[in-house]
Amino acid sequence: IPRPPNAFIVFRSCLWSNEDFRSLESDHRNVSRIAGERWRNLSDDEKEPFVQMAKEAKALHAKMYPNYKYSPSHRTIGGPKRK
Questions:
Q1: Is 67 helix (H, G, I), strand (E, B) or coil?
Q2: Given Cys at both, which of 9, 15, 20, 61 links 5, Cβ 3.0 to 4.6 Å?
């Protein structure tokens, strides 16, 4: 079960859905860096629509998965690491 998106993830998705932006940058690592910079430069009022969309997504997620509880899996010591 996927986690519901937070406000930044909603913002990044909106940024990525913009065709003009997509034509400028296709490397998702750079897209995330740019999105992070833009997010940090937004005022609280500018962030508010994304916060509201995240709350709506969280409410919908709770309705779809009423017994969902986030429980991250922990790697064992010496287990596989990300590269």
A1: coil
A2: 9
